[in-house]
Amino acid sequence: MIWSPDAEQPLPPDTFSKRGRKPAPIAETAGLSHRAWLEPVRGFLFASGLTLNDLVDRSGYSKTRISELLRGNGYYPAWEITFSVIRALGLPVQPMRRLWTAAAREADKEPGWIKDCIEQVALKPEPPPLAHKAFTETMTRAYTAYARAFLLTDHRARWVVTETFDILWLCWSEAATSENIRRYAWQLLRSRVMARAHRTLGGHPDLRAAVFSTAEARTSSPGQFVALSELVDLFGAIGRLPHDLMDVAVLRHLCGLSLEETAEVLGLTAAMAHAVDHHARATLDTLLTAQTPRE
Fold it and tell me: How far apart are CA 268 and CA 251, in angstroms?
């Protein structure tokens, strides 16, 4: 998929020596928000078959500066050069500008610098595709509930969902022609949430803190402490499930979605969602019975 991280295949740092060949890997210093737009842009460039020289000719910037931008190397790029690159690739500007702005904040750029950069480029209104708008309206509630289970606050959950939908808009031409657009979008959301989720010492997503945002926790009395402790064990076990099983368990039992809603959100058939839900319950019983020590 275009939005997926690039394969780590080192190449000379400032060239595409062959048409369509991938650039050198993204610099390790690039943050999560920076990668959120850089990975799709690199993917589109690779898929386009353009060389670095082609992009230089189309954007008007030097090979060195374009190469640094594509690697996420050096200083965070100004909006003007970023805009020139995405315009050369024919990518939508509105979602890209929001992604660029979020990454600029992540890079500790001053609000004044961000504002000045944006004001250098005049933009026309650019509504999202109608199908994209309808999709986001349908999925926002479930996506936000899932993100909140891992990220704990409404603000962080909404921010990651907005980021996901902007990347989806950026990649809409591919997403809309994919075999299963719901599955495509879900895997994108999941990757953004998991990139920021707190993890246990064993490397599993840590859902235990989500216990205290449940209705039971908010209305608990001292006599309910044991019940909350059992919930902590349950939520910890859910975080140790394989990906698909965990997703179904979170949506069904933490977010309160019906089996039919869960199937729609995940891009699964109702029969498959039922089978995964059954498998998740059985696996949870095994994990809880084994009384795996907390990590």
Answer: 13
Which residue type is seen at 27?
A: A
- Interval 57-100: pLDDT, tens: 999 999 999 999 999 998 999 999 999 999 999 999 999 999 99
Q: Please say whether the beta carbons of 18 and 33 come within 8 A.
A: no
223: left (phi over 0), alpha (psi -120 to 50) or beta: alpha
Give residue for tokens 């235990």.
208
Rounded average pLDDT over 175-189:
95
Q: Report the alpha-carbon distance of residue 254 to residue 150 in Å, rounded.
A: 11
Angle CA 229–210–248, to nearest 5:
105
For helices 63-71 and 79-89, give the axis angle rounded to 10 degrees: 90
Distance (Å, whole) CA 179 – CA 267 = 10
Distance CA 212, CA 214 (A): 5
Nearest to 152 by CA among 205, 113, 203, 207: 207
Residue 152 pLDDT level (bands cut at 50, 70, 90): very high
- Provide the whole-model pTM: 0.85
pLDDT at position 183 = 97
The count of other CB atoms within 10 Å of the CB of residue 76 is: 20
